[in-house]
DNA sequence: ACAGAAGCTTA
DNA sequence: GTAAGCTTCTGTT
């Protein structure tokens, strides 16, 4: 072996265990004897060997060996008799697979390595060392954390089941420590599976923290007395010896004697017929075909090998054939490869007769009432749903939907992020109780992880979508979905549009805005249908047991997915009439529904970020934060966790006795920035440093470190997700990542904005409304002075100050203007003397006096606030000028503080909600206006409440800006003619910072 | 693994 | 004083 060579070491024992346990329980049981792990293992080996011949692939093995555990007794048992003592025998159905995997390895003509007294991990460690010393690289095919200590510049790991490489950064990401500290970390945490004791009560997070603080295990144990947390300190002192033994147990032995020379591992082309004989014996038809194609062998000519299966003795030696043997086919019950999972239930003919939605006589009102009644009262029967696996049946359902004229539609995918989600299937409902699921991308368990492996008898995705597309785009059929934007992004990516449509989430948002906390389907179903649908996590699991939807067996998938469509259709039947009854149709049709494709497009476009800028910033922030950290430690005298407000409070106000500390509601000392700033102003050194440290670490963790992880690998851009129905006021919200709170206030923070960039040859255009909420206030409250000021383009805060304090605008002290500005914002937020006093750091009496004076000068605003409260109390809601209703069910609460809160929120909601409606109207019209100006290439990317960000070709910028301003400034028209002009500032630049 | 609190970012 | 979302810490399950 020489420099440039690449050794692959497959952790055979680890692989089979992991593959077995990764199978969902249902699939495993119904499959009789799973050879899924063996199939997955063969697929994986084959793929690795294919890559070796494909020089386009970056990492290609020149040497390969598969390593196994020999037996359970190793040198570690001498050290610690309890090692692996509580490990139970492998599950019965797993036992035969150990032998099969060894046989598979031999069928591939690959070295099958094991040694008595040593674990596979020790052999792997030894071969890694040998490869390293020869100047070669090594890749360990495993994801076992016990092996991560081996990772280094020349050694990486590869998780074949997640198709993920594990190098130094990945180890740090997962465990918080670099590979060379993994041994110390494991010594502290122990391992319950292997019965490595560790220190009780110390988990990976704490261990990483301690190692970060003390450097390594020996230092930690020597200086354990310095640990601040009592419980932790005691635990470590008491268990120091256990930690030392644990370290011996988890340290891999990289000098196992008498190992095979690496030269024996040189990768040879596989022996086609020999391999095929084995694969045929196990009925791995797909892989048999692939191998036959690749090796130019006629598979039909090859006779299946006789494969014996060991029963009994599980992780045992090379003498295959010991114990009773039976042919595999007998054990596998003759099932074809990978036929895991139950067959989905199909509807018995004649069950649940469809209630047609078209063709009923009667008046619209009684019809609607009858439909709503049916929808709410008819029981749910998830067993009655159909799983469509036949193209002719799918076409019959498409016809049925077309006849009904309304169809509920839902997609099932592998991810919450619609830009990365893969379609698993879709469901439709044509009448209450009549729904079906069409699986198109469900996979078998581990058996087919690397390449294909679709569950059999699914309609090919192309064919299914070809049948679906005409229905989704049929102008005479209404499609109903819950949160359609998600499904729209997914379907758009498959070249399918959806129109016309209704969205039950948005119907609920318009009908019940403010009254329901969530407009999610489960909540709506319980509220309107009195039915609790199957929870997603009951189908897909959560946490460790989570599996993507494509791994869910078809029966359960059908129950879940078809029920969602059924629920959606019934919700529509209930909610649509209520929309009409409450006179909210135009709010829904003008402000909500049309925004769905607009946002879908914005999300799909995404925005470019410059990762280099972020990574440079991240480095700078880390350095500066580390410097401040050291200064803080020096001032405090010990290495506290600065990120812990609890520890910080104890030090600042407890031990150091700084003044002015107030308590939060849980009895902790408050360490808010405001309070620390005050202390800093009094000349204390430490609070200033803490504030600075917090700013730097916040910028680093939330922005510079997190944003690059959101870059979509296919598009190279960041695609946020906008929620249409998550705020009470009508604003949008942004998440994953939130692009509505990118820093702007400080110079340091603004640097992050420079990383949001336009494509080459393009510019970002930022257009934002100036003082939109104050303008709305001036309009709705009809305040002459404010209207005049806005019409003249005057400085509104200065005018306010001038009115209140009788000082001329010219030469006004900035402090006076600042106070007026705070009052103006206070008004928008539903002012209180308490809040204003806090904001301005003045006594409450003084704040109260300001407010009084303000209302004397602007009596119209006091009237407006009083009218709003009265209306809200009487009706239980307030309205924006476009008729959006926002409910405040608690406004009549007997609790004065709850009531006061609702009063403030409702006065604010009219203003914030109206402003939100205005920018929604602008967004809805924007595309058409740009197209009309032949600016189709100008793309709206982001919305930040009062700002829109566009990307435009350089040559389009000049023309685009006036079009954008025009649309935004006239967005209220013609529904409302505002008595105050709206004003928009727009600017173009290469990055968001300069454009803003 | 999850939930709540505290803190910080935006409009 | 309004409206959001994300990270870290902390304690519980």
From TrEMBL:
CDD domains named among the record's database cross-references: DNA_pol_A_pol_I_C, DNA_polA_I_Ecoli_like_exo, H3TH_53EXO, PIN_53EXO
Ranges for domain 3'-5' exonuclease: 385-580
Keyword annotations: DNA damage, DNA repair, DNA replication, DNA-binding, DNA-directed DNA polymerase, Exonuclease, Hydrolase, Nuclease, Nucleotidyltransferase, Transferase
Chain segments carrying region Disordered: 316-365
Gene Ontology biological-process annotations: DNA-templated DNA replication; double-strand break repair
SMART domains reported for this sequence: 35EXOc, 53EXOc, EXOIII, HhH2, POLAc
Entries under PROSITE patterns matching the protein: DNA_POLYMERASE_A
Pfam families according to UniProt: 5_3_exonuc, 5_3_exonuc_N, DNA_pol_A, DNA_pol_A_exo1
Residue ranges annotated for the DNA-directed DNA polymerase family A palm domain, each copy included: 749-956
Top-level EC class as recorded in UniProt: transferase
Residue intervals of the 5'-3' exonuclease domain: 5-268
Molecular function (Gene Ontology), one example: DNA binding
Boundaries of every Exonuclease domain copy: 405-581
InterPro entries in UniProt: 3'-5'_exonuclease_dom, 5-3_exonucl_a-hlix_arch_N, 5-3_exonuclease, 5-3_exonuclease_C_sf, DNA-dir_DNA_pol_A_CS, DNA-dir_DNA_pol_A_palm_dom, DNA/RNA_pol_sf, DNA_polI_H3TH
EC assignment: 2.7.7.7
Catalytic function, reaction form: DNA(n) + a 2'-deoxyribonucleoside 5'-triphosphate = DNA(n+1) + diphosphate
Subunit structure, as described in the record: Single-chain monomer with multiple functions.
Family: Belongs to the DNA polymerase type-A family.
Protein purpose: In addition to polymerase activity, this DNA polymerase exhibits 3'-5' and 5'-3' exonuclease activity.
Name of the protein described by the UniProt record: DNA polymerase I
Organism of derivation: Mesorhizobium australicum
């Amino acid at each position: 072996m020489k420099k440039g060579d690449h050794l692959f070491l497959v952790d055979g024992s680890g692989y089979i265990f992991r593959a077995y346990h990764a199978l969902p329980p249902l699939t495993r049981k119904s499959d009789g004897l799973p050879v899924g792990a063996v199939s997955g293992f063969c697929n994986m080996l084959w793929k690795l060997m294919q890559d070796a011949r494909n020089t386009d692939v970056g990492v290609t093995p020149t040497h390969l060996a598969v390593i196994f555990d020999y037996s359970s007794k190793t040198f570690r048992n001498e050290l610690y008799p309890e090692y692996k003592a509580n490990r139970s025998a492998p599950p019965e159905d797993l036992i035969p697979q150990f032998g099969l995997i060894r046989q598979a390895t031999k069928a591939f003509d690959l070295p099958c390595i094991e040694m008595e007294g040593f674990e596979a991990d020790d052999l792997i460690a030894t071969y890694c060392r040998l490869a390293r010393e020869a100047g070669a690289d090594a890749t360990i095919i495993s994801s076992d954390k016990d092996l991560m200590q081996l990772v280094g510049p020349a050694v990486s790991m590869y998780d074949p089941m997640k198709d993920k490489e594990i190098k130094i950064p990945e180890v740090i990401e997962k465990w918080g420590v670099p590979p060379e500290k993994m041994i110390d970390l494991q010594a502290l945490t122990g391992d319950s599976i292997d019965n490595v004791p560790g220190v009780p009560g110390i988990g990976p997070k704490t261990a990483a923290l301690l190692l970060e603080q003390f450097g390594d295990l020996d230092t930690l144990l020597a200086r354990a007395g310095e640990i601040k947390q009592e419980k932790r300190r005691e635990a470590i002192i008491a268990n120091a010896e256990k930690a030392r033994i644990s370290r011996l147990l988890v340290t891999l032995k990289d000098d196992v004697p008498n190992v095979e020379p690496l030269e024996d591992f040189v990768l040879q082309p596989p022996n086609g017929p020999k391999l095929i004989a084995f694969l045929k014996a196990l009925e791995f038809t797909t892989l048999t075909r692939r191998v036959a194609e690749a090796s130019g062998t006629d598979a039909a000519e090859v006779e299946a090998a006789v494969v014996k299966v060991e029963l009994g003795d599980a992780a045992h030696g090379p003498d295959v054939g010991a114990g009773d043997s039976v042919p595999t086919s007998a054990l596998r019950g003759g099932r074809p490869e990978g036929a895991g999972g139950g067959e989905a239930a199909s509807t018995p003919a004649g069950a649940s007769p469809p209630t047609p939605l078209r063709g009923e006589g009667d008046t619209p009102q009684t019809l609607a009432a009858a439909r709503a009644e049916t929808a709410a009262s008819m029981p749910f029967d998830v067993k009655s749903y159909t799983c469509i696996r036949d193209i002719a049946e799918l076409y019959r359902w498409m016809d049925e939907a077309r006849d009904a004229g309304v169809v509920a539609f839902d997609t099932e995918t592998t991810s919450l992020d619609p830009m990365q989600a893969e379609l698993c299937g879709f469901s439709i409902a044509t009448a209450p109780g009549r729904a079906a699921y069409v699986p198109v991308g469900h996979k078998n368990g581990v058996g087919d992880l690397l390449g294909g492996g679709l569950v059999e008898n699914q309609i090919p995705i192309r064919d299914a979508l070809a049948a679906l597309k005409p229905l989704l785009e049929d102008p005479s059929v209404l499609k109903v979905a819950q949160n359609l934007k998600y499904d729209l992004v997914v379907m758009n990516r498959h070249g399918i549009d959806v129109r016309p449509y209704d969205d039950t989430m948005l119907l609920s948002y318009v009908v019940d805005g403010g009254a329901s906390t969530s407009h999610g389907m489960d909540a709506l179903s319980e509220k309107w249908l009195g039915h609790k649908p199957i929870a997603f996590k009951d189908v897909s699991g959560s946490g460790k047991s989570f599996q993507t939807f494509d791994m869910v067996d078809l029966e359960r998938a059908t129950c879940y997915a078809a029920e969602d469509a059924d629920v959606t259709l019934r919700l529509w039947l209930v909610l649509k009439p209520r929309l009409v009854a409450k006179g909210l149709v135009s709010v829904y049709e003008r402000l909500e529904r049309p925004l769905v494709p607009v946002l879908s497009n914005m999300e799909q476009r995404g925005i470019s970020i410059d990762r280099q800028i972020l990574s440079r910033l991240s480095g700078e922030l880390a350095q500066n934060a580390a410097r401040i950290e050291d200064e803080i430690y020096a001032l405090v005298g010990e290495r506290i966790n600065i990120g812990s407000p609890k520890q910080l409070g104890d030090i600042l106000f407890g031990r150091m006795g700084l003044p002015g500390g107030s308590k939060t509601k849980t009895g902790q000392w408050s360490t808010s920035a405001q309070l620390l700033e005050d202390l800093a102003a009094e000349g204390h050194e430490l609070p200033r440093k803490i504030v600075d440290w917090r700013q730097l670490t916040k910028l680093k963790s939330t922005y510079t470190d997190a944003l690059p992880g959101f870059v979509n690998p296919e598009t190279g851009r960041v695609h946020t997700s906008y929620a249409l129905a998550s705020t009470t006021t009508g604003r949008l919200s942004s998440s994953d990542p939130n692009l509505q709170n990118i820093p702007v206030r400080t110079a340091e923070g603004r640097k992050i904005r420079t990383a949001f960039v336009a494509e080459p040859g393009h510019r970002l255009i930022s257009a934002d409304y100036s003082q939109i909420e104050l303008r709305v206030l001036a309009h709705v409250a009809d305040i002459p002075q404010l209207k005049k000021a806005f019409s003249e383009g005057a400085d509104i805060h200065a005018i306010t100050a001038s009115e209140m304090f009788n000082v001329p605008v010219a030469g006004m002290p900035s402090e006076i203007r600042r106070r007026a500005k705070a009052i103006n914002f206070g008004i928008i937020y539903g002012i209180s003397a308490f809040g204003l006093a806090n904001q301005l750091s003045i006594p409450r009496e003084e704040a109260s006096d300001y407010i009084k004076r303000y209302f004397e000068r602007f009596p119209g605003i006091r009237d407006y606030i009083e009218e709003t409260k009265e209306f809200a109390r009487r009706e239980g809601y307030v309205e924006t000028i476009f008729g959006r209703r926002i409910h405040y069910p608690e406004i009549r609460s007997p609790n004065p503080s709850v009531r006061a809160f609702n009063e403030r929120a409702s006065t604010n909601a009219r203003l914030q909600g109206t402003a939100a409606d205005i920018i929604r109207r602008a967004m809805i019209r924007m595309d058409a206006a740009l197209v009309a100006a032949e600016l189709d290439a100008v793309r709206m990317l982001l919305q930040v409440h009062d700002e829109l960000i566009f990307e435009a070709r350089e040559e389009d910028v000049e023309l685009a800006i006036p079009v954008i301003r025009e649309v935004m400034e006239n967005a209220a028209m013609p529904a409302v003619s505002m008595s105050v002009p709206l004003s928009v500032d727009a600017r173009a630049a290469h990055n968001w910072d300069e454009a803003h």
